[in-house]
Design brief:
Elements (H helix, E strand, L loop, with lengths): L6 H7 L2 H11 L1 E7 L5 E7 L23 E6 L4 E6 L3 E5 L6 H5 L2
Antiparallel strand pairs: 1-2, 1-5, 2-3, 3-4
Length: 106
């Protein structure tokens, strides 16, 4: 039996940000975004704990401020931390299994 999904309904109930965030913690995501200089970049990234480097926290340093408008991710190709602005995301590619509405409603 083949599962059929109504993508219009999925995107009405689940935001792109929620879909991308969920997918980042479960595996790899391809994100295309517009950089500050106006060029577009496609990045293969993750926040899956098994793919992240070990981070040593220096208690003597002041923690960086968080910014809800940006997302920090591990760039798999460049092997380094990168960030993108949520409002500059042009396209994304995530595995269907990471979209909450697809996994909850079949």
């Amino acid at each position: 039996m083949t599962d059929t999904y109504n993508l219009d309904t999925i995107f009405d109930t689940v935001s792109h940000r929620e879909i991308i965030s969920n997918a980042l913690y479960k595996g790899e995501v391809n994100i295309t975004f517009t950089k500050a200089d106006g060029t577009q970049r496609t990045m293969l990234c993750t926040l899956h704990s098994a793919r992240l480097p070990v981070v040593v926290i220096d208690e003597s340093k002041t923690p960086r401020k968080t910014n809800d408008a940006t997302q920090v991710v591990w760039d798999i190709t460049a092997s380094g931390w990168r960030s993108f602005c949520w409002n500059r995301v042009v396209a994304f590619n995530v595995p269907c299994a990471t979209i909450p509405s697809l996994t909850e409603t079949v």
